[in-house]
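Consider the following input, taken from an annotated entry for SVOP like (Canis lupus dingo).
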Amino acid sequence: MATKQTESVTIISLRKLSLETREPPPKESKTFTVEDAVETIGFGRFHIALFLIMGSTGVVEAMEIMLIAVVSPVIRCEWQLENWQVALVTTMVFFGYMVFSILFGLLADRYGRWKILLISFLWGAYFSLLTSFSPSYIWFVFLRTMVGCGVSGHAQGLIIKTEFLPTKYRGYMLPLSQVFWLAGSLLIIGLASVVIPTIGWRWLIRIASIPGIILILAFKFIPESARFNVSTGNTQAALATLQRIAKMNRSVMPEGTLVEPILEKRGRFADLLDAKYLRTTLQIWVIWLGISFAYYGVILASAELLERDLVCGSRSEAEVVVTVMDTEESQSPCHCHMFAPSDYRTMIISTIGEIALNPVNILGINFLGRRLSLSITMGCTALFFLLLNICTSSAGLIGFLFMLRALVAANFNTIYIYTAEVYPTMMRALGMGTSGSLCRIGAMVAPFISQVLMSASFLGALCLFSSVCVICAISAFTLPIETKGRALQQIK
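Applying the prediction step yields:
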């Protein structure tokens, strides 16, 4: 009996010991990614400042690109240039843009978006100022080519905006950036109408360099992309940036530790042609090339239509007779016709068209998706190119140009957003850079169609523009990835 009692006590003691030594499972520490932080912090004052400063890069880029369109008639007369020589200026600008788009894209994925953006602005402002002192046509072409090299880095501003914006705001805020391009275009046309007739085109270039110089000083208020910092392993810098944004927006950070994989291999061209992105990349390149061809074709064609009166009924018969008589009396081997005040007004009205479809474009991007919206606007662009062949009045010409500018601007809006969203952080800048580079091939060809072929065969030039737009519409409709509502990818 005593033995039994001892055994029962022993069993009870073991049970007590077992219950006392049982430990609760350890709690897992919370973590979050940059995407989580961006979505948690939300939209606020930081993003408004980001939108204004990075959006203003579009003002500078538009002024530098549109400058060629308003200066072309003046340098044609001053240096007695042939049609191909005038077209070559624009082509060489975009050649520089094409080469350095890839280079800046590679460097931005490896060394940072902010640094490349700053370098590109310093480069562009320096060579733009030098252009105003060009002693000859050859120097003018060379220096404008250098400006094109610098302008190619301005796309990093869009990438920085894209990487800081919450997902649901990208489809609304990025298309609104078109307002800045419009402002730059209107500003250079307005300045040209006042400055060129009074103090000359050289002072126009000097004045046009001022916004870029001012903007360089504002870059210090915008940090490096947090997504880029974590991809390089600089988590502390990314965390400090996100905390600063949260404080500025009067918001809170997500709980836990910031964790992201370190991407050792960044900015490799081979990644764009990886099996996952090969079809997307090739179709994006076709679309970028076609959109740029159409966009700069419209801009340069507008100037040519006004300068050469290529559309019937755009001026009165009396004005046409005077123009013909003046041409016969001129001994110049080239066509020399300066813009009249009415021509500048027409360019301003058609340029305002770039913002006309922005509300519709925003709705289409957010409700129909990027692919379908782009295919519709590209199809409409093809149609309006053909409508330019209709014999119409000056008001009719302005109306067609207005709609064309609105459509080509909507095309650019959509493809910019799509390209920035479809590629992961490790190759986003390179994806934008190579797309921008291919885009400039279209821009390089456009001057020879708008300024040379259009003089020989007006309908032939319009059919070529229209056909390219149809190809782009089909390519957009068949893109394999839709980015509407999709979070930005960090790795492929």
